[in-house]
Design goal:
17 helices; single chain; Rossmann fold; alpha/beta; 16 strands; 19% strand; ten-stranded mixed sheet
């Protein structure tokens, strides 16, 4: 009997769904594996002096979890290096922050080989393998080199860059070639899919067939967009919890009659937090009548503190937030509340529900599940307004949000003003359309559509078409 094997850089046991902040990958995979007696394989997050290939096995929530430890050098070169100093900024169009070193590249290849060799004995003849995200792009190639004939799929959770951006990466052609070891390559949006196909055609002489099959490097792969969603039903249950209600009441009390604008993000330069703070400052400067009538609560959970770019970002945000409060705060009003601590998912649910404006303005994002959680948390009788960056993957389908260019301070400031003044009838109409999208395109649909297509050989897809 076939199993679904999910492989990701880090493994977050499915039983931990009550705890989380903005980690879309962990939440989505937890929901996806909840119903499957499958295997979740990945790095434990721990380092050892010498790599042994030892696997730690446990069963959590009906899912077998397999963990391996890496060496400190692996973490530095593969994770902190190539994944987060090279690929992450490149794929988010921050070529100015890309740090490419040969040792990073070597560490990335080495860890993907270790993943392949350690996973190999666990693979049954009928298992379906689903590899997640940019950390493990070469894994399919390494499994094929070791004789794995199983169907293997890959899903990218972050944006795929435009052809000219990707071509700045040394050995970019080899990275793309490794993707053609997968039977199915999934992206978040149609735009990402088109960017990949553009590269494949112009730089790899690929043949793109009408049925979505792409032929390149002597292989054939199916390429398609699979927009990820949240577990809408589970989130609705979370929203009814005592903890969520406690936090909703806490936020309503702390508002003291003021309107709350809410941002919830991982502290990352791709999230546009500096630009968001500047847009909020523009709003305060342009509309003095709003002083004392609203505040921005920005929750920005710290991450990747060992990477210099993140340390620099945190310092800049501390400075900007201090400047805004210094210029506009009064003895009884603080316009910007900036918080770096993480919150549980049920706590966030209550915070979302109490907000009047959800401000989701990344400079570039694969999808952004915070946008969908904000919508799912709203009171149907009096919903808040979602302001969404045109560069978030979610904007492709969540068109009823107020779509903004996050690089324009005036654009974002005016959208906040519009959201604050939006009549109830219009807010409800926009929210109802957004909520229908969140419920319809949930994580179960994402999982089922990807896995079903992965199970179907390309020849059969062509015959069905």
């Amino acid at each position: 009997m076939s199993r679904l094997i999910v492989v990701s850089n880090r493994v977050n046991p499915p039983a931990d769904t009550g705890v989380g902040t903005t980690g879309g990958l962990a939440m989505a995979l937890s929901a996806a594996l909840r119903e499957d007696k499958g295997l979740w394989f990945g790095w434990s997050g721990n380092t050892v002096e010498e790599y042994t290939g030892h696997i730690s096995m446990q069963v959590v929530g009906g899912v077998t979890v397999a963990l391996l430890d890496l060496e400190a050098q692996d973490e530095n070169e593969y994770y902190n290096g190539y994944a987060n100093r090279t690929l992450w900024p490149l794929f988010h169009y921050r070529t100015d922050l890309v740090n490419y070193e040969r040792s990073f590249d070597e560490g990335y290849e080495r860890v993907n080989i270790r993943f392949a060799e350690t996973l190999l004995p666990l693979i049954g003849p009928d298992d379906i393998i689903w590899v997640q995200d940019y950390h493990l792009i070469p894994l399919g190639r390494e499994l094929r080199r070791r004789g794995v004939k199983n169907r293997i799929g890959f899903f990218l959770h972050i944006p795929w860059p435009a052809r000219r951006v990707l071509s700045t990466l040394p050995r970019h052609n080899e990275l793309v070639e490794s993707l053609f070891s997968y039977d199915l390559i999934g992206f978040q949006t149609g735009e990402d899919t088109e960017a990949f196909l553009d590269y494949a055609q112009h730089d790899a002489n690929a043949e793109v067939c009408e049925d979505g099959v792409v032929k390149a490097f002597g292989n054939r792969s199916r390429v398609k967009a699979f927009p990820i969603g949240i577990d809408a039903a589970d989130f609705a249950t979370t929203l009814k919890s005592d903890k969520a209600e406690d936090y909703r009441k806490l936020m309503v009390k702390s508002q003291d009659g003021r309107k709350m604008i809410l941002g919830v993000d991982r502290l990352d330069y791709s999230k546009g937090l500096e630009e968001r703070f500047s847009a909020y400052e523009t709003l305060l400067d342009k509309y003095p009548d709003l002083h004392g009538e609203l505040f921005l609560l920005q929750i920005a959970t710290r991450s990747r503190d060992s990477v210099d770019a993140y340390q620099d970002l945190r310092a800049r945000l501390d400075t900007i937030s201090g400047q805004i409060n210094g210029a506009y705060a009064t003895v009884d009003w603080v316009p910007l509340r900036y918080v770096n601590r993480p919150y549980r998912r049920d706590e966030l649910a209550g915070i979302y529900r109490a907000a009047h404006i959800g401000l989701v303005t990344p400079l570039r994002d694969g999808m952004n599940l915070v946008a969908k959680e904000f919508v799912a948390a709203q009171d149907a009788a009096n919903p808040g307004v979602l302001i969404l960056s045109e560069f978030a993957g979610a904007a492709e389908t969540m068109k009823e949000a107020l779509i903004v260019n996050p690089l324009s301070r005036e654009d974002v400031a005016e959208a906040i003003r519009q959201g604050l003044n939006m009549p109830l009838k219009q807010r409800k109409a926009r929210w109802e359309a957004l909520m229908e999208n969140v419920e319809t395109n949930d994580v179960s649909r994402w999982r089922d559509s990807f896995v079903e297509m992965l199970k179907t050989p390309i020849a059969e897809l062509a015959e069905a078409g």
